[in-house]
Automatic annotation (TrEMBL):
It holds the Pfam family Amidohydro_1. It comes from the Archaea. Keywords: Hydrolase, Metal-binding, Zinc. Residues 53-395 form the Amidohydrolase-related domain. It comes from Thermococcus paralvinellae. SUPFAM superfamilies: Composite domain of metallo-dependent hydrolases (SSF51338), Metallo-dependent hydrolases (SSF51556). One of its GO terms (molecular function) is deaminase activity. InterPro entries: Amidohydro-rel, Metal-dep_hydrolase_composite, Metal_Hydrolase, MTA/SAH_deaminase. The keyword Hydrolase applies. This is S-adenosylhomocysteine deaminase.
Length: 417
């Protein structure tokens, strides 16, 4: 049995002081006062008095291999960025290159406190292998589209990938990943619906991420994107939509009622579209919200702590209300909201929850005066404050070192570059 000790434990249910988390196998066995540790058969102890322990952050939408393109195509509108810059480069991908750059992206995500990624990309087998190498919990879908000529996104490969990885790994799980409402036909969406119902799997898809997408769907289908999803039969609690920047008021109501999750990528779409999704409207209507970094091209980092801060602040600007979203709201979205979307028992530090945990060094100037640690985490912390990351009860990151991979961060980047 392992024990993880810290000065403070923080999740959305509040803060606890001078407690220890006992971990057995892949789950939290119990949370007990530190002075009771001697009553348990503990083999290893991690942490110390200068740490804050939080649930692992869940990056509910990302494209980890796109770290290769960081810094390319900045300051362009989304449609031009995608069609004229990104897609031409993506068509040149090879499996070997995807694997190498996925390692970089996953390592960066882990080092910044992510214990889970939900990735949507090409050559998904390589991303799955990279996830295994580093030990992150991963949900991975092979991008599928049929209304755009894109050879590495053939729909059949998405189904084949799912079948190859179903039940193959304890913490690397396949999902279905249709690209977007303007690149996937109604016929293909209906096929995906049937497959997902048979396999009881999640569907991960971009929705209403640009004005052009909305216009194309409306012209082709005579309905708005969320109405299109409902028409196809995929809009339900197993659907994870991403962005939703241009959802109408009626779409917000329809989406919330469906039980689907919307992943808020605040930095990415503010940068690409100069806009913020109606997240607060969806949240107040009862919808589930998660948070994602999107990719290192549009973000331009894979730092979920930074993402929480931007999500809170941009929504305050959008709503013109400094109370919306609160620090607690965005912390919920980054933990419990993501866990709910992915159907995993994570996001809280409680008995029987998955032992996906992060130790943050709070012996830093920007963590003083330690009077409001939730505020300090969301508004003051940095991904670089993360020192240790545990996934499924195992230490996968330790101050720059990745034990499962047996390499330091600088060794990984040096080998690839």
């Amino acid at each position: 049995m392992k024990a993880i000790i810290s000065k403070y434990i923080l999740d959305v249910n509040g803060i606890r002081e001078n407690m220890a988390v006992l971990v057995e196998d892949n789950k939290i066995y119990d949370v007990v006062p530190k002075d009771k540790l001697k009553e348990y058969d503990v083999d290893e102890i991690f942490g110390g008095e200068h740490y804050l322990l939080i649930p692992g952050l869940i990056n509910a939408h990302t494209h980890v291999a796109m770290t290769k393109f960081r810094g390319i195509g900045d300051d362009l509108p989304l449609d031009k960025w995608l069609n004229e810059v990104i897609w031409p480069m993506e068509k040149e991908w090879t499996p070997e290159e995807i694997y190498k750059w996925a390692l970089i992206g996953i390592a960066e995500a882990i080092a910044n406190g992510s214990t889970v990624i939900n990735d949507h990309y090409f050559f998904a087998d390589e991303i799955a292998k990279a996830s295994q190498k580093l030990g992150i919990r991963a949900f991975i879908g092979q991008t599928m589209m049929d209304l755009v000529e894109f050879p590495i996104a053939e729909p059949e490969e998405g189904f084949k990938f799912f079948k190859r990885w179903k039940d193959r790994d304890e913490i690397v799980k396949p999902v279905l990943a249709p690209h977007a409402t303007d690149t996937v036909s109604l016929e293909l969406l209906k096929e995906i619906k049937e497959f997902s119902e048979e396999e009881k799997t999640l569907i991960h898809m971009h929705v209403s991420q640009s004005r052009e997408e909305v216009l194309r769907v409306k012209k082709r289908e005579k309905v708005l994107p969320v109405e299109y999803l409902k028409k196809a039969g995929v809009l339900n609690e197993n659907f994870i939509g991403v962005h939703g920047v241009y959802l109408s008021n009626e779409e917000v109501k329809l989406y919330a009622k469906s039980g689907a999750t919307l992943v808020h990528c605040a930095v990415s779409l503010a940068k690409l579209e100069g806009s913020v999704a109606p997240i607060i409207s969806l949240w107040e209507t009862g919808g589930n919200i998660a948070i994602g970094n999107d990719c290192a091209v549009s973000n331009n980092s894979l730092d979920m702590i930074q993402e929480m801060k931007f999500a809170a602040i941009l929504n305050k600007v959008k709503s013109q209300d400094p109370t919306k979203a609160s620090a607690k709201d965005v912390f919920y979205w980054a933990t419990v909201g993501g866990a709910k979307a992915l159907k995993i028992k994570a996001g809280l530090i409680e008995k029987e929850y998955l032992a996906d945990l992060v130790l943050i060094n709070i012996n830093k100037l920007h963590f003083t005066p330690k009077t409001n640690l939730l505020s300090h985490l969301v508004y003051s912390a940095k991904g670089s404050d993360v020192e240790k990351v545990f996934v499924n009860g195992k230490l996968i990151y330790d101050q720059g070192y990745f034990p499962k991979f047996k390499k330091f961060d600088y060794e990984i980047s040096a080998e690839i570059l």
